[in-house]
C-alpha cells in the first residue's frame, strides 16, 4: 500500500520511542484494540481497555510512557499522550486516502463576482457561492453547501455537505463545518406590539476564529448588531444552539445539545458538557467546567467545576442531589413518626 508505514516511520510520525519491535514489516491501517489485525495500528489511551490490549492482535500499539510489556509479536511505541499520537495516525491515513483535488464542479454555481482561485479551491456539485464571497486557498466546499453574499472564508477550510454560511459572516483559517451546520441564521428577536410578535432585524454577523470546528446540525445565530463570536481553537459539538451576540472564548469545548441564550459569554478554555442550558446576558469565567445538564442562571467565576440546576460548585451540587434522592425516604419517615406520635 502506497501510504503504509514502517515501524520507524510510525515512531517519527507520532514522536514516540520504539519500545519493542513486532512481526509485521509495515502497517497499512488502524483499528480498535479488540478488532485490530497484524497490519493495523492501535493505541492504549485508557486503563479500562488494558484487557483488550493484553489480547490484541494489532501489529503495533501506541502505549503510554513506561509501558514495556504487551502481546507477543506486537510492536510497542511509547508516547506521552497515546490518544493524541493516534490522531496523527488517523490523519495520515485519512489524508492519504482522500487527496485534495482543486477545481469547480460543472454542477456547482459560483457567482462571477466571487473571489477564489479555481486552481487552489475545491467546489463540489450542487454548491452555491454567491456574489462577493471570498474563499481562501486550500478550502474545500462540499456538495450542496451555500456560501452567502460577501462571506469571507479563510485558507484550508472544510465545509461539509449541506452546511450554510449566510451573508457577510467570516470564517478564519482551517475552520471545519460538519454536515448541516448553519452559520449566521437570524437571531431569535421579537417585540410584542399590538397583540403581535414583530420581528426585530438582525443585521450583525457571525465570526469564527482560526481552527474552529462546528458540529453537524449546530446553529449559530447572527448578532442583532455587531458579531456573534467563536474564538480561535474552540470546538462546538453537534446539535448546539448559540444565540445572537453570544461570545465563546478561545479553545473552549461545547458539547452536544447545549443551548446558550443571547449575549452570554464564555471565557477562554471553558468546557461545557452535554445538555447544559444558559440564560442570556451571563458570563462564565476562564477555565470553568460545566458538568452535564447544568443550568446557568447567573454569572459564574472561572476555574471552578459546576454542577446542577441552578449551577453550584460540583461538590455542593452533588450533595444537594444526594439529599434530593433521600427525600422520598425522609417523607416516609416523617409520616411514620407522625403516626407514632398521634398513636400515643
Automatic annotation (TrEMBL):
EC number(s) reported in the record: 2.3.1.191
Metabolic or biological pathway: Bacterial outer membrane biogenesis; LPS lipid A biosynthesis
Entry GO CC: membrane
InterPro entries reported for this sequence: Hexapep, LpxD, Trimer_LpxA-like_sf, UDP_GlcNAc_AcTrfase_non-rep
Enzyme class: transferase
Keyword Lipid metabolism included in the entry's annotation: yes
Catalytic activity: a UDP-3-O-[(3R)-3-hydroxyacyl]-alpha-D-glucosamine + a (3R)-hydroxyacyl-[ACP] = a UDP-2-N,3-O-bis[(3R)-3-hydroxyacyl]-alpha-D-glucosamine + holo-[ACP] + H(+)
Record GO biological process: lipid A biosynthetic process
Keyword entries, A-Z: Acyltransferase, Lipid A biosynthesis, Lipid biosynthesis, Lipid metabolism, Repeat, Transferase
CDD domains reported in the protein's UniProt record: LbH_LpxD
GO MF annotation list: N-acyltransferase activity; UDP-3-O-[(3R)-3-hydroxyacyl]-glucosamine N-acyltransferase activity
Occurrences of domain UDP-3-O-[3-hydroxymyristoyl] glucosamine N-acyltransferase non-repeat region (ranges): 28-91
Residues forming the catalytic site: 244 (proton acceptor)
Complexes and interactors: Homotrimer.
Recorded family membership: Belongs to the transferase hexapeptide repeat family. LpxD subfamily.
PANTHER family: UDP-3-O-ACYLGLUCOSAMINE N-ACYLTRANSFERASE, UDP-3-O-ACYLGLUCOSAMINE N-ACYLTRANSFERASE 1, MITOCHONDRIAL-RELATED
Its job: Catalyzes the N-acylation of UDP-3-O-acylglucosamine using 3-hydroxyacyl-ACP as the acyl donor. Is involved in the biosynthesis of lipid A, a phosphorylated glycolipid that anchors the lipopolysaccharide to the outer membrane of the cell.
Protein name: UDP-3-O-acylglucosamine N-acyltransferase
Taxonomic placement: Bacteria, Pseudomonadati, Verrucomicrobiota, Verrucomicrobiia, Verrucomicrobiales
Gene that encodes the chain: lpxD
Amino acid at each position: 500500500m502506497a501510504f503504509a508505514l514502517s515501524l520507524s516511520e510510525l515512531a517519527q510520525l507520532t514522536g514516540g520511542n520504539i519500545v519493542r519491535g513486532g512481526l509485521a514489516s509495515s502497517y497499512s491501517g488502524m483499528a480498535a484494540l479488540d478488532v485490530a489485525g497484524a497490519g493495523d495500528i492501535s493505541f492504549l489511551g485508557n486503563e479500562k481497555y488494558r484487557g483488550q490490549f493484553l489480547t490484541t492482535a494489532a501489529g503495533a500499539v501506541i502505549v503510554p510512557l513506561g509501558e514495556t510489556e504487551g502481546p507477543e509479536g506486537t510492536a510497542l511505541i511509547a508516547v506521552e499522550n497515546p490518544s493524541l499520537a493516534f490522531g496523527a495516525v488517523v490523519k495520515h491515513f485519512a489524508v492519504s486516502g482522500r487527496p485534495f483535488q482543486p477545481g469547480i464542479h460543472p454542477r456547482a454555481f459560483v457567482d462571477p463576482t466571487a473571489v477564489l482561485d479555481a486552481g487552489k479551491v475545491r467546489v463540489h456539485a450542487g454548491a452555491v457561492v454567491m456574489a462577493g464571497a471570498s474563499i481562501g486557498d486550500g478550502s474545500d466546499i462540499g456538495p450542496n453547501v451555500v456560501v452567502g453574499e460577501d462571506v469571507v472564508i479563510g485558507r484550508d477550510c472544510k465545509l461539509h455537505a449541506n452546511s450554510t454560511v449566510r451573508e457577510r459572516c467570516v470564517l478564519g483559517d482551517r475552520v471545519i463545518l460538519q454536515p448541516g451546520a448553519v452559520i449566521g441564521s437570524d437571531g431569535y428577536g421579537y417585540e410584542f406590539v399590538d397583540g403581535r410578535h414583530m420581528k426585530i432585524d438582525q443585521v450583525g454577523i457571525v465570526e469564527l476564529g482560526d481552527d474552529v470546528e462546528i458540529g453537524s446540525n449546530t446553529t449559530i445565530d447572527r448578532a442583532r448588531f455587531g458579531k456573534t463570536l467563536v474564538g480561535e481553537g474552540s470546538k462546538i459539538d453537534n446539535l448546539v444552539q448559540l444565540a445572537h451576540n453570544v461570545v465563546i472564548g478561545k479553545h473552549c469545548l461545547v458539547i452536544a445539545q447545549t443551548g446558550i441564550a443571547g449575549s452570554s459569554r464564555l471565557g477562554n478554555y471553558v468546557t461545557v458538557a452535554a445538555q447544559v442550558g444558559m440564560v442570556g446576558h451571563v458570563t462564565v469565567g476562564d477555565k470553568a467546567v460545566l458538568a452535564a445538564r447544568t443550568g446557568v442562571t447567573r454569572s459564574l467565576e472561572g476555574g471552578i467545576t459546576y454542577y446542577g440546576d441552578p449551577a453550584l460548585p460540583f461538590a455542593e451540587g452533588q450533595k444537594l442531589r444526594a439529599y434530593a434522592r433521600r427525600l422520598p425516604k425522609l417523607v416516609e419517615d416523617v409520616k411514620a413518626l407522625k403516626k407514632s406520635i398521634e398513636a400515643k
